[in-house]
């Protein structure tokens, strides 16, 4: 993508072009996962993470009344590591396996190829759009999906709202803020996002996805499990960041070459569920979620006949996932489902 001097974008447009431009976008041209990439996700840390998700999915399906046909949709499957383990684990649950129709929503053609090689399963359908789903009950999985979608930032200065923009000037990108009609925007999105806020991070794409998902769950039954970098404070804050080669870097300097991400406001997400749907949500931390699902007990069973070094490796990896000073508190988990569904496994 060629950018001209003094060309400007809203922040979300800048992120969209940096991550998803068809030729130069970060996710379109490289595999960012693993030690050789830029970051590591939970499924890459331990196979037990994905095993716990598989057990949760089977249990949630049972809670839905064991529908004879349902869709399991992973939103943004990364390098396919989690789905690969899910598929292998589902082999132990024959009735479930026969009922389960696996779909993956993935924008990156490069990552689709990686997923197909890694998962190596013929019966998986890759979606271009959630409208391709039929009217079966749906279980959606979103592990580090929403944090990779573009966001807008709004700043309140002297009782007036401004929207953050980015411009290319003198061979570099820089931020600048433009006066913004917040009242008009609030009417458009149909809920008062400004309540008790001086700073806002909001992803229009995330809300679009969520509204489609809410309608699917409401109409056909099911739920969505969201696992992501998140915080629960009511006051929103600036969490925009970029990562390259496992280190934080300048958001504006790594255009097309670094992962731009942010931390989800679970307080905002809970409000979106409340304001824009007739569904219900519940939250916990990743550490609590995995512990309640029995990750430590599973590790104990697996490690009984292992050498000490192998056992130590399993527990070292689990510690990364559940310790409150590592990923255990930084990552949060949310289940969004129907009001009548009282399923609480992991919460």
From TrEMBL:
SUPFAM superfamilies in alphabetical order: S-adenosyl-L-methionine-dependent methyltransferases (SSF53335)
GO biological process: methylation
Matching Gene3D superfamilies: 3.40.50.12710
Molecular function, one GO term: cyclopropane-fatty-acyl-phospholipid synthase activity
InterPro entries xrefs: NDUFAF7, NDUFAF7_sf, SAM-dependent_MTases_sf
Annotated keywords: Methyltransferase, Transferase
Classification via Pfam families: Methyltransf_28
Domain of life where this protein originates: Bacteria
EC number: 2.1.1.79
Protein name: Possible cyclopropane-fatty-acyl-phospholipid synthase
Gene: cdfA
């Amino acid at each position: 993508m060629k950018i001209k001097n003094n060309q400007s974008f809203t922040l979300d447009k800048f992120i969209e072009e940096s991550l998803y431009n068809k030729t130069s976008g970060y996710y379109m041209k490289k595999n960012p996962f693993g030690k050789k990439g830029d970051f590591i996700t939970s499924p890459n840390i331990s196979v037990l993470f994905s095993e716990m998700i598989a057990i949760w999915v089977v249990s949630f399906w049972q809670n839905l009344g064991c529908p004879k046909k349902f869709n399991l949709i992973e939103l943004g499957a990364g390098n396919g590591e989690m789905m690969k383990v899910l598929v292998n684990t589902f082999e132990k649950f024959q009735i479930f396996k026969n009922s389960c129709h696996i779909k993956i929503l993935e924008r990156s053609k490069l990552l689709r190829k990686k997923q197909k090689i890694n998962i190596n399963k013929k019966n998986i359908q890759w979606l271009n759009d959630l409208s391709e789903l039929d009217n079966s009950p749906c279980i959606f999985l979103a592990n580090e999906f929403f944090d990779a979608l573009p966001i807008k930032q709004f700043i309140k200065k002297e009782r007036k709202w401004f929207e953050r923009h980015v411009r290319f000037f003198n061979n570099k990108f820089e931020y600048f803020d433009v006066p913004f009609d917040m009242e008009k925007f609030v009417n458009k999105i149909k809920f008062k996002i400004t309540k008790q806020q001086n700073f806002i991070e909001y992803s229009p794409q995330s809300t679009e996805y969520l509204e489609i998902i809410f309608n699917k769950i409401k109409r056909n039954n099911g739920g969505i499990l969201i696992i992501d970098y998140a915080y629960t404070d009511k006051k929103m804050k600036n969490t925009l960041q970029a990562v390259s080669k496992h280190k934080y870097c300048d958001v504006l300097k790594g255009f097309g070459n670094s992962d731009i991400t942010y931390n989800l406001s679970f307080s905002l997400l809970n409000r979106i569920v409340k304001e824009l749907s007739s569904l219900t949500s519940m939250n916990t931390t990743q550490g609590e979620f995995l512990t309640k699902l029995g990750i430590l007990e599973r590790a104990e069973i697996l490690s009984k006949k292992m050498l000490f070094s192998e056992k130590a490796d399993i527990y070292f990896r689990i510690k990364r996932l559940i310790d409150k000073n590592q990923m255990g508190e930084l990552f949060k988990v949310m289940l969004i489902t129907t009001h009548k569904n009282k399923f609480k496994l992991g919460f």
